[in-house]
Amino acid sequence: MIDFDCPSDWVIRGDNAEVLPNLPDASFPLIYIDPPFNSGREQRRTSISVVRDDQGDRIGFGGRRYASTPRTSTAFADRYDDYLCFIAARLEEAHRLLTADGTIYFHIDYREAHYCKVLLDEIFGRDRFLNEIIWAYDYGGRSKRRWPAKHDTILVYVKDPSTYFFDQDAIERIPYMAPGLVGKEKAARGKLPTDVWWHTIVPTNSNERTGYATQKPEGILRRILSASSRPGDRVLDFFAGSGTTGAVAQQLGRRFVLVDDNDEAIETMRHRLHGTAIEWVDADGRRLAEVDDAERETATLF
Description:
CATH topology of the largest domain: Rossmann fold
Number of domains: 2
Structural class: alpha/beta
Number of helices: 8
CATH superfamily of the largest domain: Vaccinia Virus protein VP39
Largest sheet: 9 strands, mixed
């Protein structure tokens, strides 16, 4: 079991179905997950391979150097025959891991949102449903045969409707869409966001862009963490991807636990997240630097 007694942040490389049962009960006031959307499409990434090389172009754990070699673009199918079965066991664990005043934000798109809401009602209880947030954006292709789909859904559930934490005062205000309809003072102060969030995707030329296929913008996570966690709280994201949850947690003074089984995700997070207080481990709690070195040495022997 991962030891949370120390104040470190954690990045865990492993299948979340194996990692989550080893995390202690009621450890997280906030869980955000952005699981695969079951879109039926291929998601493409350009990956690299690395080998130990004292003259290499990359610096890894403990100052070790590695030489990198680009590979061709790889793809994975975002397709599941039984998506609800895939996600249900993980949501059961999420329910166990939430504190009594905790909140989960479940990020999905229109294809599965209605099925997932019924599933969340079963696991958390219908009276634990807090919000359906619509994140609206404007990019990509335009269908000529239907209204273009330009939004994601974020379903919000709480562990206990009588004790959950929500800090309205910590939420960054936004401009009124029609400032002339309100007084100057209100227009200058701005308004609180509603359950419809207009926010761009990560721009191509943005400093926060990592190139990871499913990266979400920091502004979305900043709003979530500000409202539903306190400074010092530990946040869990077990489909961590590019590590946006961890990056925003660092900015806002939260701690984090990130889980992903994709080597490219771990590599992206290693270059994105900063600080010495991060434990990089595998599902058994072994430090990744030691595990990776052992695997390379074994590969060399054979």
